[in-house]
Amino acid sequence: MKTRLWFRGVVVMGLGLLAACSLTPQPPEPLPTLTPQPSLTASPTVVWFPPTDTPTPIPTQEVMPTPDQRPGLGEVLATDTFTAPSGWQTRATTLGSIAYGKEELTLAIPGPKTSLISMREDLSYENFYLELTASANLCRGADAYGLLVRASGPFNGYRLLASCDGQLRMERIRNGQAVPLQDWTPSGQVPPGAPGSVRLGIWAYNTEIRVFANDVYQFSVSDPVWRGGTLGVYARTAADSPVSVNFTQLEVRSLTVQPTLPPPTPTPTERPKQKGS
């Protein structure tokens, strides 16, 4: 009997142990590891219109009037429509011809390196403004045409030349020898080649002479040699091609008001050398 009871006790205890073992809590399954996300960095704010320094205003410059390049223009002293006979010298030779046309004087040169001059000796002026239209019919390259002022004849005076490649030149003529006061200068007003026309202007006061083309100032020269004289027109060939130029619409005006001329530029003088230098 005791043996049975002991056996039952052992069995009960074994079952209790088994039950206790089956009720032991199992460890929880690990949770999935979260991968840390990179932190977001705030983007800088874009300034579309950054502030700038306020510029210092530039003082307003006073606009000075353009100086009058032809001051003192007075009454009309003479006009010429070049209708025969109006006092111009004419001729016809194998070297060329000077002849009246329809309100024009034509200088025509057929041969190479030849010049023609026609003077109007009954008109003589000292201070004046003169305009004359020159129209080239045949002309090219270094061929030239123009007019003489303050002349005592065809070989003494001042000569303004327009070349057939669009340049101007002012020279002093003395005994037939030309000295450039303003050498060849390109001009946008002188037409290159032919046909072409330009209205030449000369403003002369005392020793200063200013040159214009189509009312546009070109340059000025100063020379004390010739102070007065008559007028002339001129044409020449530079090569073998012929030249033909018409001159029309001459007008001469007086200078009634003494213009304000710029002060003369002082001539630099050489400092005397010291002894022993």
TrEMBL record:
Signal sequence: where?
1-25
Task: Note the Gene3D superfamilies from the entry.
Answer: Exo-inulinase, domain 1 (2.60.120.560)
The record's region (Disordered) falls at: 257-277
Does the keyword Signal feature in the UniProt annotation? yes
Ordered alphabetically, the record's keywords are: Signal
Task: Specify the superkingdom.
Answer: Bacteria
Biased region (Pro residues) positions are: 260-269
Stated name of the protein: 3-keto-disaccharide hydrolase domain-containing protein
Query: Origin organism of this chain?
Result: Levilinea saccharolytica
Q: What are the leading ranks of the lineage?
A: Bacteria, Bacillati, Chloroflexota, Anaerolineae, Anaerolineales
